[in-house]
From TrEMBL:
Transmembrane segments: none annotated. This is Protein kinase domain-containing protein. PROSITE patterns: PROTEIN_KINASE_DOM. InterPro entries: Kinase-like_dom_sf (IPR011009), Prot_kinase_dom (IPR000719). It comes from Actinophytocola glycyrrhizae. Residues 9-193 form the Protein kinase domain.
Amino acid sequence: MAAPLADRYRLLHPAWGDRFGMTHIAAGPDGAPAAVRVLSARPEVRAADIELLTGIRHPNVAAVRAVLVDDRVAIAADAVLGRTLRRARLTAGELPKVGTSLAEALSALHERGVWHRTLDPTTVRIDHRGEAVLTDIGVGHLLGLPGRAADDWLALAGLLSTVWRNTHGRWRRPPAQLRDVWADTMARARDMG
């Protein structure tokens, strides 16, 4: 049975969960599909948090539509159809493009003063166009998870290395373009401290 959330989103079925909460496929107020992340804790949510998170717009970020507060707290975002980066098999040419797109998405978050804090292969989806889209925006922010911009950059560098090794084997040397993206990501982390 579908459960209404803040009388706006109808939760249809759970998609996946972790220690921070459960993500559901939902129907939004306009009937369009949404991804609704019901947080495991009920943090204090300020109007400024809602305005901040719903104001982030970037083509490689799943836009937060609403932060919902009733007896629980949830983040409603655009549903991104596609596979997670954990399940993606990327070619040597695709991975640098993914890394660059994610770096641009993180930069857009950081410009707004939001750190992702939970970046891993499950929070990146490859959509039907082959574009990398960062999901779970605002989870770390609302839950008050510790983090800095440098932590996001280190997580991105680790994610790119892991995806490369999982796809192409530990000993195959990555192409120069991917090494450039990785080096730039590490430099950003180092510069931020």
